[in-house]
Amino acid sequence: MRLDLYQAESERIAKEQIALLDEAKQRIVSGAPLSRLEQNGVLHALQVLIENAIGKSKHLLKSIEEPVPVSAYDAFASLEQRGNITLQELKQWNAAIGLRNRIVHDYMNIDINFIYELITSNHHQFIGEFLRKPLANKL
Length: 139
What we know:
Layout: H1 3-29, H2 36-63, H3 72-81, H4 87-105, H5 112-120, H6 125-132, H7 135-138
Helix pairs in contact: 1-2, 1-6, 2-3, 2-4, 2-6, 3-4
């Protein structure tokens, strides 16, 4: 796989999903309620961002001929062990992966107010930052 094309596509997807979340943030901050359809769109945007980052973490490991774990948690733990991310960043990634798993597998128990707080406080922005960083700068 051409890593330059992968990086460009990751950045494009990140830009799109962050823009959607920023639009939702503006609506939430202004006090306008989000419809159920819009709430689902917010959850989907978060899921896509996180899954994109999980894929990138595995491509990073593969590009340096490191073992690529199946588990997303293990992929980011490998990046932390190699010094590519900090322990604090690993904690953020573990929380993001947990959120993604909850969106996908435990969707009936998601507190939308928690999601609103996450978005309005920009806690999702680190995912976009990771996706925008060139692959070469992470290793």
